[in-house]
């Protein structure tokens, strides 16, 4: 009966350990996915910034060419207007991507905090489990009935 209880106890201990490892692994995977998404947002923001700088530079060049050439500036007026619209669009996209990156970073931080909390809880449970196992081995914990009935 004692060896049967110790086998059951070991089976429960292994199951708890495996479940905890699975949960921690899941959070690590989720955190990796969030970090990957954040990286792609940052990369996309860099591209948008470069595009915005190029369009702004082109717009500035057209603006400088505008004064003093009224006949030649009429065709460029449409180019300037379209470039200004593109600048506005790129600024909106940049702002959206910055907000998405900020949200992703906040989610990553929350997941990391939760993962750290789970790791601390896991360590504490392992320590508790170790102490209970030592007490069970030394006989300090009396074996009781598992059905919850009191001995009469």
TrEMBL record:
The keyword Endoplasmic reticulum applies. The keyword Hydrolase does not apply. One of its GO terms (biological process) is endoplasmic reticulum to Golgi vesicle-mediated transport. This is Endoplasmic reticulum transmembrane protein. May play a role in anterograde transport of membrane proteins from the endoplasmic reticulum to the Golgi. Keywords: Apoptosis, Coiled coil, Endoplasmic reticulum, ER-Golgi transport, Membrane, Protein transport, Transmembrane, Transmembrane helix, Transport. It comes from the Eukaryota. Its main location: endoplasmic reticulum. The chain crosses the membrane at residues 20-39. It is a multi-pass membrane protein. Belongs to the BCAP29/BCAP31 family. One of its GO terms (cellular component) is endoplasmic reticulum membrane. InterPro entries: BAP29/BAP31. PANTHER family: BCR-ASSOCIATED PROTEIN, BAP (PTHR12701), ENDOPLASMIC RETICULUM TRANSMEMBRANE PROTEIN (PTHR12701:SF18). Residues 60-106 have a biased composition (Basic and acidic residues). It is found in: Endoplasmic reticulum membrane. Residues 59-115, 129-152 are annotated as: Disordered. Gene3D superfamilies: 1.20.5.110.
């Amino acid at each position: 009966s004692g060896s049967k209880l110790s086998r059951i106890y070991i089976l429960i201990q292994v199951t708890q350990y495996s479940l905890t490892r699975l949960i921690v692994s899941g959070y690590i995977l989720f955190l990796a996915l969030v970090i990957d998404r954040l990286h792609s947002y940052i990369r996309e923001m860099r591209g948008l910034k470069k595009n915005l700088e190029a369009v702004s530079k082109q717009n500035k060049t057209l603006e400088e060419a505008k004064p003093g050439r009224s006949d030649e500036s009429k065709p460029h007026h449409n180019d300037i207007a379209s470039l200004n619209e593109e600048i506005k669009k790129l600024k909106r996209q940049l702002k959206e991507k910055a907000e998405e990156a900020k949200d992703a970073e906040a989610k990553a931080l929350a997941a990391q905090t939760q993962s750290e909390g789970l790791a601390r809880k896991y360590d504490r449970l392992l320590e508790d489990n170790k102490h209970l196992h030592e007490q069970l081995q030394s006989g300090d914990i009396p074996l009781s009935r598992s059905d919850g009935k009191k001995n009469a």
